[in-house]
Amino acid sequence: MVHYGHSNQLRQARAMGDYLIVGVHTDEEIAKHKGPPVFAQEERYKMVQAIKWVDEVIPAAPYVTTLETLDKYNCDFCVHGNDITLTVDGRDTYEEVKEAGRYRECKRTQGVSTTDLVGRMLLVTKAHHSSQEMFSEYRKYADSFGKCPGGRNPWTGVSQFLQTSQKIIQFASGKEPQPGETVIYVAGAFDLFHIGHVDFLEKVHKLADRPYVIAGLHFDQEVNRYKGKNYPIMNLHERTLSVLACRYVSEVVIGAPYSVTAELLGHFKVDLVCHGKTEIVPDRDGADPYQEPKRRGIFHQIDSGSNLTTDLIVQRIIKNRLEYEARNQKKEAKELAFLEAMRQQEAQPEGEDE
């Protein structure tokens, strides 16, 4: 997947140098070393390119990073999170570059992992967002994580994401609309931020020579009202970071009103309001949420050209449910085995033979 945890890693990596090249693996490589990918390679290449700290994407990057790869793209060093990535046979994929001193590490984002998000999606069919049943299902899922001998894995186990003002400041552009810029407002859930969202925002961004795109994110309860089941998969805090990381977005309204009101349009001095081809669910009072911008003649419907929706991603997961559950358990077992080996190595008295 591509999620805000990855964006945060790329943000930190970019701050370590001047030009950030991101290597993205093929579906084949991921299936071999980790398990079935959630997003297809073409989707992932485009998603990564849309993250604002990325200067260049290298498609089909080798799973094991070698010095040869770094030299080929004229890179001084490579950066990875402070978790481990292992090859199919349990080796550290960064061994060679670490030994050569061309490896840097950044902090992993607490409270999110592909493994956790996959687990949340697998619960979609089980219960309702607001019910106690849903919470206990999730707790059961969270607690069952790390049933492997040796206890819970610190990287792919489930933990709660905690939003801070610092994190929002790090992700935000900090820029206000400038004279001559076209202020464009879009609103939605932007749940499990994916290629459909990226394609839509890219099209919106192209509507003006100097666009300033504001994305209004609805509250979790509002999203649940019009989406049902246990949507949203990601809470409002997580969705905020996902959208802020996108290069086509200048500002985010955290908890936007469902109906685009005259007050909102006046407050942000909005020139255009856009919506994709997805169904527009009426507000609680039965009104069209885009009534005001339509009345003013500033409403535009945009065809992103992508048919991917959050629902379709969840369907992909459920379809491969067993494969994903096996992937999560296998990945955790492999990481725990590596941790145990590291612990034993550290406990070994110096000078003793391997």
From TrEMBL:
SUPFAM superfamilies: Nucleotidylyl transferase. CDD domains: CCT (cd02174), ECT (cd02173). Pfam families: CTP_transf_like. It catalyses: phosphoethanolamine + CTP + H(+) = CDP-ethanolamine + diphosphate. Keywords: Lipid biosynthesis, Lipid metabolism, Nucleotidyltransferase, Phospholipid biosynthesis, Phospholipid metabolism, Phosphoprotein, Transferase. Pathway: Phospholipid metabolism; phosphatidylethanolamine biosynthesis; phosphatidylethanolamine from ethanolamine: step 2/3; Lipid metabolism. One of its GO terms (molecular function) is ethanolamine-phosphate cytidylyltransferase activity. Its EC number is 2.7.7.14. InterPro entries: CCT, Cyt_trans-like, Ect1/PCYT2, Rossmann-like_a/b/a_fold. Coiled coil: none annotated. Residues 1-118, 186-277 form the Cytidyltransferase-like domain. It comes from the Eukaryota. One of its GO terms (biological process) is phosphatidylethanolamine biosynthetic process. One of its GO terms (cellular component) is cytoplasm. Ethanolamine-phosphate cytidylyltransferase that catalyzes the second step in the synthesis of phosphatidylethanolamine (PE) from ethanolamine via the CDP-ethanolamine pathway. Phosphatidylethanolamine is a dominant inner-leaflet phospholipid in cell membranes, where it plays a role in membrane function by structurally stabilizing membrane-anchored proteins, and participates in important cellular processes such as cell division, cell fusion, blood coagulation, and apoptosis. Belongs to the cytidylyltransferase family. NCBIfam families: cyt_tran_rel. PANTHER family: ETHANOLAMINE-PHOSPHATE CYTIDYLYLTRANSFERASE. This is Ethanolamine-phosphate cytidylyltransferase.
